């Protein structure tokens, strides 16, 4: 394996030499300032960082090359080039041939090295003449280029050479995630968010290596996904939201566009249809579904636990079969989330009967079932996944069934909890969650064996937020900490150190126009970035 790598290195070293030989005017190596890779404000913190105290001079003579016969690598190269263009207004060619101005390369290389233990693992070698990213898969390469994006300074150094130079600190990064599942949930049911809002959230999350977005697509206050065989779900059930506004929904084309945009960022979309509770909007659309004995009416309040499907009617399961079939058909990811939380008006035996049947429907349509922690009381399969949010007893039941668990403890990981008493948005039934409380805990500390932990997810419920600015206020900066909690090992996490790295995210967040909550616990770095400082070519 090492041999393969060395051969590739040699191949690339010779390519670089060739390219340098091609340049008309041969240049001396640029003397670079000492930069310390171990001081870089990377989030999430990589597994291993070995600094070599020099730098790679990123400049107009740099080109990106990628493995060409490995799926997705060229696209990852193009993604990097586009993001660097946005950041520093430098145009970097990707896989160009015969360019005679190339002096140094960023090579994104498919490698079968056994050191790369997971599909998302990558190695990043930054030298004075080249940057090499090795990964098994394009997914790993994609995670690797997020690290590189974070290492490229916003400001160039204009004194090192006649051209602008953006020095990238040199050294070696060996990285792979602690958990395979690193997610956030967005509730588009209590308040609806547009495709563009969801895309902005996805793009920001992917910068921090988050790879799962769970969309809570239905609840008492709204049904948000077009189901062609049951059109009233969106016509009627999609017309409202909390507070009396007009709601909205994704057409299947909208949803496919979200899935495509997420896939480009190696992020999986997980659709949730919450049932048998949280189903008022569906029951108003089709009253035969209703099982609480009352005439359902559109609901725009914030109460939970009053609705249920009728769990003893075959027609209800025929309906669910259609819904799961249509959504599964446009969801390439492996998961389907069936909710299952807070079914307070469903009798326990009916609840168990319901979850047992719905699990089979999910399997019939080729998906793995996820449910909130209550689903563990049913007779479900070890392949189903429990999302632990409240009950430690339910989490234990899931472990005893051999299930995998997504860790989302409300007291630590709920993005809709207020930061403190002065918070503009949010609830506080699970407590206040300031930025330090959100970060200082470990998924492994709740008695769930490590092998049963699939990962971490931070849910963002939307009862109190109705636009993207408010969404960002609750999600940022806390979600950045959850990315580190799920990617980085415990030994690499330390609040004092994280706090400084988080402070350094301000210029990125400002540039992305993210209305983050400027927590007083953080000494936010002043953002001297303005678009005017970028020279246009
Ligand atoms: C509990 S967490 C809920 C949601 C609410 C949320 C508000 C869970 C599975 N259910 O229905 O929106 O609290 O924080």
Description of the structure:
- The chain is α/β, with parallel strands linked by helices and 537 residues long.
- It is elongated.
- It has 16 helices and 16 strands.
- The strands form three sheets. It has an eight-stranded parallel β-sheet with strand order 11-8-7-16-15-14-13-12.
- The chain is 32% helix and 17% strand.
- It has helices at 2-22, 73-88, 138-151, 195-207, 232-235, 252-264, 280-285, 314-329, 348-364, 392-400, 410-413, 435-439, 468-475, 478-487, 495-503, 506-511; strands spanning 48-58, 62-66, 104-110, 122-126, 130-135, 166-175, 181-187, 212-216, 218-219, 222-223, 268-272, 335-337, 368-372, 385-388, 404-407, 453-460.
- It folds into two domains: 2-175, Chitobiase/beta-hexosaminidase domain 2-like (Chitobiase, domain 2); 181-492, Glycosidases (TIM Barrel, Alpha-Beta Barrel), CATH 3.20.20.80.
- Bound molecules: ligand TNX.
Q: Brief overview, please?
A:
The protein is an alpha/beta fold and 537 residues long.
């Amino acid at each position: 394996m090492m041999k393969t790598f060395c051969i590739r290195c040699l191949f690339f070293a010779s390519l670089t030499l060739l390219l340098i030989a091609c340049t008309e005017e041969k240049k001396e190596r640029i003397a670079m300032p000492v930069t310390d890779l171990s001081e870089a404000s990377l989030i999430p913190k990589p597994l291993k960082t070995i600094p070599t105290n020099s730098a790679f001079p990123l400049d107009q003579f740099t080109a990106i090359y990628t493995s060409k016969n490995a799926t997705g690598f060229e696209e990852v190269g193009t993604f990097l080039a586009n993001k660097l263009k946005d950041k520093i207004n430098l145009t970097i060619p990707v896989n160009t041939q015969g360019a005679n101005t190339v002096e140094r390369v960023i090579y994104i290389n498919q490698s079968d090295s056994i050191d790369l233990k997971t599909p998302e693992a990558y190695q990043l070698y930054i030298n004075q003449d080249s940057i090499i990213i090795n990964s098994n898969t394009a997914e790993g390469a994609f995670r690797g280029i997020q690290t590189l994006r974070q290492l490229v300074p916003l400001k160039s150094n204009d004194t090192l050479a006649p051209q602008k130079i953006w020095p990238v600190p040199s050294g070696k990064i060996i990285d792979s995630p602690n958990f395979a599942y690193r997610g956030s949930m967005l509730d588009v049911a209590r308040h609806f968010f547009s495709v563009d809002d969801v895309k902005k959230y996805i793009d920001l999350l992917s910068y921090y290596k988050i790879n799962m977005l769970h969309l809570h697509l239905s609840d008492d206050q709204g049904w948000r996904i077009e189901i062609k065989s049951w059109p009233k779900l969106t016509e009627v059930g999609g017309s409202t939201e909390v507070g009396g506004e007009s709601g909205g929904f994704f057409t299947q084309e909208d949803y496919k566009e979200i899935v495509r945009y997420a896939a480009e960022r190696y992020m999986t979309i997980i659709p949730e249809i919450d049932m048998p509770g949280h189903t008022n909007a569906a029951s108003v659309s089709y009253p035969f579904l209703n099982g609480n004995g009352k005439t359902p009416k559109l609901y725009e309040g914030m109460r939970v636990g009053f609705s249920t499907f009728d769990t003893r009617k075959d027609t209800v399961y025929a309906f669910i079969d259609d819904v799961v079939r249509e959504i599964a058909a446009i969801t390439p990811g492996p998961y389907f989330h069936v909710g299952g939380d807070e079914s307070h008006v469903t009798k326990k035996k009916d609840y168990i009967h319901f979850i047992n049947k719905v699990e089979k429907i999910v399997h019939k349509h080729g998906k793995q079932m996820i449910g909130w922690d209550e689903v563990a009381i049913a007779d479900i399969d070890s392949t189903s996944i429990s999302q632990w949010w409240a009950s430690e007893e339910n989490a234990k039941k899931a472990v005893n069934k051999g299930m995998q668990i997504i860790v989302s403890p409300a007291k630590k990981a709920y993005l809709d909890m207020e930061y403190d008493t002065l918070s503009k948005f949010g609830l506080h039934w699970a407590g206040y969650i300031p930025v330090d409380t959100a970060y200082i805990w470990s998924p492994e500390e709740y008695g769930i064996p490590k092998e049963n932990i699939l990962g971490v997810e931070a849910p963002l419920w939307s009862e109190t937020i109705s636009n993207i600015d408010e969404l960002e206020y609750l999600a940022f900066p806390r979600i950045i900490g959850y990315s580190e909690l799920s990617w980085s090992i415990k030994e690499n996490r330390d609040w004092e150190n994280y706090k400084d790295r988080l402070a350094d995210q301000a210029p990125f967040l400002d540039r992305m126009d993210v209305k983050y909550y400027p927590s007083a616990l953080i000494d936010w770095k002043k953002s001297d970035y303005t678009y005017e400082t970028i020279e246009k070519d």
